[in-house]
Amino acid sequence: MALYKDGNELTHTESEDFDKVHSPGDSAPFSGIYLCINCRDEYAYNAGDPLPPQNHRQHSANKGAIRWRLLVKTQRGPN
Fold first, then answer.
1. Dihedral sign, Cα of residue 49, residue 43, residue 2, residue 39
2. Single pTM value for the model
3. What does the DSSP 8-state code read for residue 28?
4. Among residues 68, 64, 74, which one has the least CA distance to residue 41?
5. Distance from C-alpha of 72 to C-alpha of 76, rounded to nearest angstrom
6. Of 44, 50, 19, 41, whose CA–CA distance to 31 is shortest?
7. What are the extents of the domains in the chain?
8. Which of 17, 51, 60, 67 is spaced 20 to 30 A from 30 at the CA atom?
9. Cβ–Cβ under 8 Å, residues 38 and 65
């Protein structure tokens, strides 16, 4: 589970970006933290980087396939 200290630095959203599930090796559509919905591992990725492959961590049969979902999305600051 991701941790945070200052909730004032986070903004709640109902964006559908957080509902999409991605396969191993897919390009991360956004920079942020991704959660494997089956083993609960979390990893930070930059937009365009490939999400971890099936062998990032071996799942037992009861955990199912590795599937990634966006957990925390970063935003660009002002230029």
1. positive
2. 0.84
3. P
4. 68
5. 13
6. 44
7. 16-73
8. 60
9. yes
